[in-house]
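The pair is listed for reference:
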Amino acid sequence: MAKAAIAAANSEQANPMLQRLMAAPQRAIEFLKETRQEMHKVVVPTRAEVQNTTIVVIVTVFLFAAFFELVDLTLGHGVDLFFLHLTKH
């Protein structure tokens, strides 16, 4: 009987895939418990917070759009002047 127990222990050590398979349900249960704990920590923003951050995002988008439009116009004008300079010579 001792030899059978040793053989079973050796076969489990020799097959890590079997160990992983046997531990899968326990790992899944642990994952779900931790997920539930983390979900209790979630704070839903108030309507006022959502409105304020939305306004900030919209203003920021327009500021970046204006900045990139200015950069595009400046570089475009510079490239036009450069090509005009090249064609005159």
Notes: The mean pLDDT is 88. Residues 28 and 34 are 10 Å apart (CA to CA).
